[in-house]
Amino acid sequence: MEHVKKDFVAQSIFDFEAMNDGEQGKLILEILVDQPILMGFVTNLADDFNDDEHETIVDSIAILINAFIAAGIPVDMIPREIVDEVIDEKVQGYNNEEADLIDSPLVYEDLQARAAIKCKFDPEDEVSKENFNMVLNTIISIVERAISHSMQKVDKN
Predict the structure, then answer these.
(1) Distance between CA atoms of 55 and 63, rounded to whole angstroms?
(2) 11 to each of 48, 90, 105, 120, 155, how far by Cα in Å?
(3) Which pTM does this prediction carry?
(4) How far apart are CA 85 and CA 29, in angstroms?
(5) 93-137, pLDDT tens digit by residue?
(6) Which of 11, 31, 33, 55 has fewest C-beta within 10 Å?
């Protein structure tokens, strides 16, 4: 029997889209409580994006965390050190024009494809779209790095 690899992010997107507004809101509130540092970072970005873009960033966090949980990987509270470390790395990379530094291309593609539909980016405004993509990539890296650190701690014990 052939082993089929499941795309947990695509499934999580499907599950999130199937929720009504109340269910999505409840999930976002749970993540606000469970991930105050990450969500604080994203909340501070509200003025940098239009409402659709900011909402899509927040939704992307919920989708990503749920994908890991569905895969049986717990997501502990992400510490400030990891958030700051990844942000610094990404900003340096983008400042050095290494904008193609995407840590998880398949995850990024799934979430970026959803964003393209939800955000209705202005085709004339490449800067806004690039900024959005940088934040999306940064969030993916933050969550993945935090999970990696948590798993390393478990392996050591």
Answers:
(1) 12
(2) 29, 27, 16, 22, 28
(3) 0.89
(4) 25
(5) 877 776 557 878 889 999 999 999 999 888 788 888 889 999 999
(6) 33
